[in-house]
Amino acid sequence: MNSNKKFQLLRRRKNGYFERVKGVPEPVSAVITRRVRFSEADVMGISWYGRYPEFFEEASSMLGKKCGLTYKAFYESNLRAPIVQFHIDYYLPLMLDEEFTVTASLIWDEGARLNTEFLITKQDQRISAAGYTIQMFTDALSGEAIIASPELLERCRNKWMAGDFK
Questions:
Q1: Is residue 166 assigned to a domain?
Q2: Is residue 163 over pLDDT 80?
Q3: Adjacent-strand bridge partners of 106
Q4: How far apart are CA 10 and CA 47, in angstroms?
Q5: Using CA atoms, how far apart are residues 64 and 85, in angstroms rounded to an integer?
Q6: 3-state SS of 52-68?
Q7: Is 155 strand, coil or helix?
Q8: For residues 62 and 70, what is the distance between their CA atoms, to the nearest angstrom?
Q9: pLDDT digits over 126-147, tens only?
Q10: Which of 89, 123, 150, 164 is the most buried (most CB within 10 A)?
Q11: Rounded-to-integer distance, Cα 116 and Cα 160, Å
Q12: How does residue 20 score in pLDDT terms, banded at 50, 70 and 90?
């Protein structure tokens, strides 16, 4: 089952995180695979819930590289993109040394924001956790919110529309 189908199943179950608009490109996704490390589990061998945002961030970094939205690109564009909303739904715990995948998907939005959905799946394809972040753009020097889409985001969107992220 591909990651888009997993997100569709999850949306049906939980009413979704972000609306999909007809006529815009499909989400851009990046997937990482890793194992639960000793330092990420409690004495019962269960991955601590506070590690899941870190798992999301690892996949988000890969997604940023794919889309040209890296921390370096933000820095060079005098932009910041702080998270203004974070949400996670826990379904099944990850266990010590268990292999899992994290899918981060950037969802198209016309605003000056980044909507990212996350899905953590176990090796047997059961969903461990899902969530999302919303990031808004700010000027790095003044800290003021940027209302219009910055050039960095527009470059990403142009490549996205051209199908460069497949």
A1: no
A2: yes
A3: 28, 116
A4: 22
A5: 18
A6: HHHHHHHHHHHHHHHHC
A7: helix
A8: 9
A9: 999 999 999 999 999 999 999 9
A10: 150
A11: 15
A12: confident
62 half-sphere exposure, CB direction, 13 A CA radius: 17
In a domain, residue 55? The reply is yes
Could you please report the per-residue DSSP string of 94-135? -BTT-EEEEEEEEEP-SSSEEEEEEEEEETTS-EEEEEEEEE
**103 within 8 A of 112, measured Cβ to Cβ:** no
Number of domains in the chain: 1
Question: How many CA atoms lie less than 13 Å away from 146 in the CB half-sphere?
Answer: 25
Residue 11, domain CATH: 3.10.129.10
The answer to whether 107 touches 20, Cβ cutoff 8 Å, is yes
Spatial neighbors of 53 by CB under 8 A, at least 6 apart, are 86, 88
Q: Give residue 142's domain range.
A: 3-161
